[in-house]
C-alpha cells in the first residue's frame, strides 16, 4: 500500500502575478552576482550537511566562474546540439563522490529552490539530464563509478556513474564465461540505462537489463539513502524501467550476472536495393523475432550513394551465442535471403564481441582496457526517435520506405528484434510495456556541421520519416522507448496541466504502467521536486510544489530559436 509522506506548508501573506516576454536562455542564466550568492549559499549548506570543511568540497561544487566549469559540463554532453554557446547552462555543477554528497546535494538544491538535473553518462539523446529553460543545477554522478563483481554469487554492484564498458571490463577481469545483458555502447551510464529498462544484443536470450536487478539504492526527496527493503517494492519497481530521475537519485544497482559460452559468433552481411535488400528486410521480420533465442540480428537501413547512384543499404549485424557452423546451418534453412556463409562469421569470446559491436577493428587483438576510456567531450550532432512494430510491414511498404529514405537523403533506421525471452515476461513485471512487439525501430541521424540551418534540416528529416511510418507502427498509443528520449512526442511544463501533458508522452513510453508510476511518484515526491521535461507527473490533487510554479514554456531549441511569452504565478502555500 502506497502512503503519502506528511507535507509541510509555509504560509506567506502575498502572491504576485508577473507577465513577461524573454528569450528562454535568459531564464536559466542568473546574473554573475546572483550566481555567486547562490554558490556561496549552496557551499555553506553542502558543508553543513556533509560535515566537511568548505575547503574539502570545492573540488566537487563548480560555479560558472570556476575555470573547470566548462570542461566539467562538456565532459558528459554526448550530443553536440546541446554543447553550444547559446545552450542554457547550470548555475552550479555538483560532482559527488559519496552517498552523503548526493544526499546533501538533494537537500541543498531543494532548500535553494533550484531544479536539479541528474546526469550519469550523458547519453540522454535530447539533453534532458543536463539542460533546462529554468534556473538549474546539474548533479553529475560520473565519480560514483564503483563496479564490484562477485563471481561466487553470480552478482555485481553497478554504481550509477559507471559506464557499460567499465561493467563489461570488470566482469571480464573475473570470468570469461559470465556477462550482463545491457547495451552495446560502452560509454553509456549505468544509472540512466538501467532505470529506463536497458537492453542489448542478448535481450532475446535473457530479456532486459532490469530483469536481473536484485537490489538498488536511491536518495529520496528528503535526502534519505534507501535500499530495496527500505524503499519498498513499489518504488523499486518504478526505478527498474520507469526512469530514475522522477523519484530520486539512483545510486546504483545490484544485478545478477548471466552465463555466456566460451565462444560466440558475430557477423555482418550487407545488401543493396538492386541485389535483394527489399526481400532480405521483408523476410527478416518473420525470422529475426522468431528464430533461435541465442541469435540477435539487428537490421540497419541507410540511404547511401553507390557507383554515383542513390540507393539503400540494408545490413544485418548479429551476435550468436554459439559456434559459426551452427548459425550458418540455422540461417541457411530459415533465412536463405540473407546468404550467410561461414566466411562472413568470426568466432571470439563474449567480451571480444562487445568490442566488435563497438566497431573495434580486429576485436580479438584489441586491448580490453579501451573499455575504460570514457571518450570525454567527443560528441557529434544527432537526433533519435523510436517506434514499435506489432505486425510485419508488407513488402510494398518496405519498397516505399526505401524510396522515401532516398528522397530524404540521410536519416537511417535500426530494427531491433524482440521475441524469445522478451515475450515471456509480463508487460507489467517492470514499467517497460513493449515486450510483445515484433521489433523496435530507432530513427538515427548524425552530422558534423555546427549550423542551426543544417540542424533544422536534419531534424525535419527525422520528423518526416516518423510521419511516413505512421501506418506501419503501433497505435493507441504509438509506442516509444523511454531511453530514446524524444521531446517531439511531448513535454511537460509542470503547471496546472501537468498530468495531461505527462500523460501524452507517458502513455507512449509506459502504456498502462503509466498509471502505477504516477501513483508511486505522487507518494514518494508529492512536491514534484524531481522533474524534467518528460518526468512522471504527480496526480492532479497533489498541486503543492517546492519550486516556483512555472508558466507556459517552450522546450529550448537552437534550431527553433524559441522565446517565451508567459504568465507566471509565484506562490508558496
Q: What brief labels describe this structure?
A:
single chain; 573 residues; alpha+beta; 7-stranded antiparallel beta sheet; 17 helices; 20 strands; FAD-bd_PCMH_sub1; FAD-bd_PCMH-like_sf; signal
Would you write up a description of this structure?
This protein has 573 residues and is an alpha+beta fold. The protein is 29% helix and 22% strand. It has 17 helices and 20 strands. A seven-stranded antiparallel beta sheet has the order 16-13-15-14-18-19-17. Helix 11 (277-287) crosses helix 14 (395-408) and helix 14 packs antiparallel against helix 15. The chain starts with 15 loop residues before the first strand and ends with a strand. It comes from Arabidopsis arenosa (Sand rock-cress). Keywords: Cell wall, Disulfide bond, FAD, Flavoprotein, Glycoprotein, Nucleotide-binding, Oxidoreductase, Secreted, Signal. Residues 86-260 form the FAD-binding PCMH-type domain. It holds the Pfam family FAD_binding_4. Its main location: secreted.
Amino acid at each position: 500500500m502506497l502512503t503519502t509522506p506528511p507535507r509541510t506548508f509555509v504560509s506567506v501573506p502575498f502572491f504576485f502575478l508577473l507577465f513577461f516576454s524573454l528569450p528562454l536562455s535568459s531564464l536559466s542564466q542568473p546574473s554573475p552576482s546572483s550566481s555567486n550568492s547562490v554558490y556561496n549559499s549552496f557551499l555553506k549548506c553542502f558543508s553543513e550537511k556533509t560535515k566537511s570543511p568548505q575547503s574539502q568540497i570545492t573540488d566537487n561544487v563548480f560555479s560558472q566562474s570556476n575555470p573547470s566549469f566548462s570542461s566539467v559540463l562538456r565532459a558528459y554532453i554526448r550530443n553536440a546540439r546541446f554543447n553550444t554557446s547559446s545552450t542554457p547552462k547550470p548555475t552550479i555543477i555538483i560532482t559527488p563522490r559519496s552517498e552523503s554528497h548526493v544526499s546533501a546535494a538533494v537537500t541543498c538544491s531543494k532548500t535553494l529552490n533550484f531544479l536539479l538535473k541528474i546526469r550519469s553518462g550523458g547519453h540522454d539523446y535530447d539533453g534532458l539530464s543536463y539542460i533546462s529553460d529554468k534556473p538549474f543545477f546539474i548533479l553529475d554522478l560520473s565519480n560514483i563509478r564503483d563496479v564490484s563483481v562477485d563471481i561466487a554469487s553470480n552478482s555485481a554492484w553497478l554504481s550509477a556513474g559507471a559506464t557499460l564498458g567499465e561493467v563489461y571490463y570488470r566482469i571480464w577481469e573475473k570470468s570469461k564465461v559470465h556477462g550482463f545483458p545491457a547495451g552495446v555502447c560502452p560509454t553509456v551510464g549505468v544509472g540512466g540505462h538501467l532505470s529506463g529498462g536497458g537492453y542489448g544484443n542478448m535481450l532475446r536470450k535473457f530479456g532486459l537489463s532490469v530483469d536481473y536487478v536484485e537490489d538498488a539504492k536511491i536518495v529520496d526527496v528528503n535526502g534519505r539513502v534507501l535500499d530495496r527493503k527500505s524503499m519498498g517494492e513499489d518504488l523499486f519497481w518504478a526505478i527498474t524501467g520507469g526512469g530514475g530521475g522522477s523519484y530520486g537519485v539512483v545510486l546504483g544497482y545490484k544485478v545478477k550476472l548471466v552465463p555466456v559460452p566460451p565462444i560466440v559468433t558475430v557477423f555482418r552481411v550487407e545488401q543493396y536495393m538492386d541485389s535483394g535488400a527489399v526481400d532480405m528486410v521483408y523476410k527478416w521480420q518473420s525470422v529475426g523475432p522468431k528464430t533461435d533465442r541465442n541469435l540477435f540480428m539487428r537490421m540497419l537501413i541507410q540511404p547511401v550513394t553507390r557507383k554515383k547512384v542513390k540507393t539503400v543499404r540494408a545490413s544485418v549485424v548479429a551476435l550468436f551465442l554459439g559456434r559459426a557452423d551452427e548459425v550458418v546451418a540455422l540461417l541457411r534453412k530459415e533465412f536463405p535471403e540473407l546468404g550467410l556463409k561461414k566466411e562472413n562469421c568470426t568466432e571470439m569470446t563474449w567480451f571480444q564481441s562487445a568490442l566488435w559491436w563497438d566497431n573495434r577493428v580486429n576485436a580479438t587483438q584489441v586491448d580490453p582496457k579501451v573499455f575504460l576510456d570514457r571518450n570525454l567531450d567527443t560528441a557529434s550532432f544527432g537526433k533519435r526517435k523510436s517506434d514499435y512494430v506489432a505486425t510485419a510491414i508488407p513488402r510494398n511498404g518496405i519498397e516505399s520506405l526505401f524510396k522515401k529514405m532516398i528522397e530524404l537523403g540521410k536519416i537511417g533506421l535500426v530494427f531491433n528484434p524482440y521475441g524469445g525471452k522478451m515475450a515471456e515476461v509480463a508487460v507489467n513485471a517492470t514499467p517497460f510495456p513493449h515486450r510483445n512487439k515484433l521489433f523496435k525501430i530507432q530513427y538515427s541521424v548524425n552530422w558534423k556541421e555546427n549550423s542551426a540551418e543544417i540542424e533544422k534540416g536534419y531534424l525535419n528529416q527525422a520528423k518526416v520519416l516518423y510521419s511516413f511510418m505512421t501506418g506501419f507502427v503501433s497505435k493507441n498509443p504509438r509506442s516509444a522507448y523511454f531511453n530514446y528520449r524524444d521531446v517531439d512526442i511531448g513535454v511537460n511544463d509542470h503547471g496546472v496541466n501537468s498530468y495531461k501533458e505527462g500523460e501524452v508522452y507517458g502513455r507512449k513510453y509506459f502504456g498502462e504502467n503509466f498509471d502505477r508510476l504516477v501513483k508511486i511518484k505522487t507518494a514518494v515526491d508529492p512536491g514534484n521536486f524531481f522533474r524534467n521535461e518528460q518526468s512522471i507527473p504527480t496526480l492532479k490533487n497533489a498541486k503543492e510544489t517546492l519550486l516556483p510554479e512555472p508558466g507556459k514554456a517552450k522546450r529550448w531549441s537552437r534550431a527553433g530559436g524559441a522565446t517565451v511569452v508567459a504568465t507566471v504565478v509565484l506562490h508558496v502555500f
